Amino acid sequence: MSKLIINRIFKPSVCKNFLVPFPFLLIDYILNNPNSSSDGRVTTNVYGNEKEVLIKDKDLKEEVCDAMTVGFSRDGLRVELCGNHGDVCSPTIFYKPTDPEIEDLTVDLPPLPTGSQIQSLVMSSLPKRDKNWVVVVKLLGSQLSMCRPFGSRKWINIQTKPQNINPSSSIMFSKKEKKFYVPTPGGNILCYLDPHSEDDDLIDFVELEFDDLPKSVFQELADVSTCSRTDHLVESPTGQLFLVKWYGEDLEDIDNTTLYNVTKKFMVFKEGEKPSCVYTKKMIYTEDIGDLCIFVGHSEAFCVPASSSPGLKPNCIYFVGYNFGVYDLTTKTCTMFLTKDDNPLRKLEFPYWPPPASFPVLAPN
Question: Do residues 215 and 349 both lie within one domain?
């Protein structure tokens, strides 16, 4: 990350030593700057619970994109579709951990069927030479395919139906339960997949029982009744399961020629006490996830303590993809980063999360 750009924003004492290992210091500075910058490169506008940060400087825009993206990267892990040749897709996983005791790995996955488009990719753990290490891809639509790169090294097709899997929601792996999960379109059932599945195995289901919502939330639900929604399951480092509902609405650009789907609100539900039935999970609405931060919009959703990295704000959701920003669960404030033409800061190429399928995929700014 360029120190020249940061020096123009940060105090020198802040940027000198901490920015590269702690990219969210830049985001924290922007979030906590109540006024516009003196040079006019950043303008902040507040409309109730919505906050817009207009970034007019092209270099700074890239710095914010880089900071958010680096922050979403985990311990030297990178996935590229570098094996794409025409309609053939052969993803490659690069893993260069910071721990010198852990082996660097480059894993070339076998080609997927002609015309396949990967929407998300998730692993049963960080890459390792183990025949039971599993990679699952969610292809555009509802197709799931599984591979054991150091085992059979072939794609295993999982039988699914379009009505079973939400085409716009992400797949995740629960380290605690040793299962892959993806929500159904209605968001009240989870499809799950055993990592030991074989060709043509069927997915199984877990029903979500939602506790009664507080009356104070009813109006908020009415406000997002016309919004699109994607559901993302995430697991905390201690094994706590959260269901994140991400609401977006359509906005036209200033020329009224292009529609953008922008973030309106998040709602979070945490798993409650285990019910007697193993095929049921009780979910409870919450506005408090403690010291945790949730990250959505870039590959698999995940969750870390805010105290793990300077600049992270607890009880917040950081989002990227079809728009970049931060949602504060405590104040219910949605801060969104905009470019100089008042359009959302966005990136849509893999592994950023695409907008809901019902909306057009637009070229990134």
Answer: yes
